[in-house]
Amino acid sequence: MKPHDLKESLLELPKHSNYNIIILTAGNDRHKRFALKIQKEFPKLVVAWYEYDRTVKSMYQNKHYENVKIEDNKSNKVIKIIRYIYNNIIRLIKNPKIIFNFHDKVNERLMLKKYYKDNKTIEKETFNYELRLLKKFSVIEKQKINPNDINKSEFCEILKKHNAYFLISLGGPLLSNKVINSVKGLALNQHAGHSPNYRGSGTIAWALYHRDIKSLSNTVHLTTTSADSGPILRRSNICIHPDDKPQKLFFKSVALGTELMIEVINDIIDKDNIQVFNQPKSIGTTYLARELTNDILITIIKDFKNGWLKNAIRRSW
Predict the structure, then answer these.
(1) The pairing of beta strand 273-277 with beta strand 8-12
(2) What integer pLDDT is reported at residue 107 of this predicted model?
(3) Which residues pair with 77 in a beta bridge?
(4) CA proximity to 254, closest of 203, 209, 210
(5) What letter would DSSP give residue 137?
(6) How far is the C-alpha of 143 from the C-alpha of 55, rounded, in Å?
(7) 308 φ, ψ to 5°?
(8) pTM higher than 0.85
(9) What is the mean pLDDT of residues 226-255?
(10) Contact of 150 with 178, CB cutoff 8 Å
(11) Within 13 Å of residue 195, how many CA atoms lie on the same side as its CB?
(12) Residue 262 CA to its chain's centroid (Å)
């Protein structure tokens, strides 16, 4: 539960008149489960829940800017399609043998399509029943916000008015110091990955790509302006079943992390100081979303088709 392989120190906790909680999440079922679980455990403390939604109009951008941005996006899509077709025609002219790889490419496309379809199905299977039970514990209406607005000064002022102690997050963009300091106590983040080894985006997938079964974990840490790099409060490995799919392992990590977050909040409320474990900058990698390419996912999918996980579990016995 605690990463004792890292250097430990004591953090003196800020004093405050209340332990109110602000929740920041993305909008998928796993994020809703996180927000509702927190409300169930701390019904008198949650004062706000903000959910990121890119379809929501930005509060702080003028109409002219938004219209230009929409037009730019449409133009960029057309340009990308034309460029893709052109590049593939050139490749075919230069190397006609490419056509023989067409069958493999089609198979890979179908594998990816199934992967993303299964992702939605498995998330529903994992969280939907619990979500229905948790809805009755909702104590506050979520407010949707464009993620581009989260670090704006105007929104930071809104956060300050809640006079909260905790700012807890799951998903979404990196937060600025203004947002982190908008609460009187601590900002905490739940990361579906094994920090410091795997920070950033898609880290369960990266652990699978590296066949690193010991790093299928979740980490709760103090929020900083860098991705998943703040001092760690809890880190724990998930329970693995030989028949688990990659998506299921990811959702297990998120579910575990929510329980770790609840444990951390209770710990902070009950104590004057807590153990934290600093993350060495020299250890691990921070992954960007764009680095998790289709080729990486195809490698993971093929590994699972070939029984890698079952063999890895058997070897670990």
Answers:
(1) antiparallel
(2) 86
(3) none
(4) 203
(5) G
(6) 13
(7) -55, -45
(8) yes
(9) 97
(10) no
(11) 31
(12) 17
